[in-house]
Structure prediction request, 335 residues.
Amino acid sequence: MSIARTPRLAAALALTLVAAVGCGSAENTATGQTGAAEPTTRVFTADNGDITIPVSPKRVVATGYAVPALLEADAPLVGISSWKRGEPLMTEEDLKKYRELTKVAGESAAETNYEAIAQAEPDLIVIGVPKPVLADVDLKRLEAIAPVVAIGPSLPSAWRDLSRKQADAAGALSAFDAVKSEYDEKAKGLKDKYASVLPTLELGHVGAYGEVAKGNFQREFNGSWGTNIAQDIGATYYGEVKVKGNGSAAVSEYPSIEELTAAFADADAITYSVAADGKVPASVQYVMDSPLWKELPAVKAGKTFPFRYTEAATYRSAMKTLDAVDEAFAPLLTK
Prediction:
């Protein structure tokens, strides 16, 4: 299907829906009764307004953070954007589906292939990018193809509500809620496991996005990517951002390396982000190579713990993070 033909298809679909509703309201000749048909659409509140969408979408296109969320929720996907950053977090089953699905966009919103989306013939498009990035998307062009709901991230820890809202739009809440329940049960078990040690610790976290060239490091507080899942099992990260910005800037900051002592002098233990394979990123290694790092009380006490899978943004992927956090914190139970 070309984009030029899409409006005619939409008009035909609209006429079909009108006819269907009319038939549903007519008298049932077999029973002699009348009754209204079930609604075929509903109004959904998204970042881009109140949008009329199908009650039960049959062909969904997803981009950005909506990709892993809707893969896990078994939504009826017919096209997705590339989401390479999430591949290490996917199960074998989800990764297989991810690789088989048609890619209709690249890693960034600016790499949207509108013709490919039209050819996928979706009845719903779910865009999972932050509000500021929506400017890189031609919403009017997409709306000529199918209803569009933009449901993007704000705070890192908000992935819980975000992914549920994306699954709701796609009519896939049943599978979503099942995975959430599994996560909640796992997190509760780990919270009980570490109840005697974690609540007593003042924690600090070194994130993976410091900039070595600028001589700074990333410190993450409660609610950030590196910390929010550990919080579900009882971890608490002390302090807060000095000058809060929007999104991740509200829960993480970038002090100069000279401020390392001031940042973590009161930390009983320090966690830090590593890659999925356990390798220490250059930005974190920069911190560890500093003489100031070696003088921190937590470092001297041997209480530094690496976290893998800190970019998890769905319940299924966050279960891998829970496993990694459990593995990292295990020594606390033997000391």
Q: What stands out?
A: The radius of gyration is 24 Å.
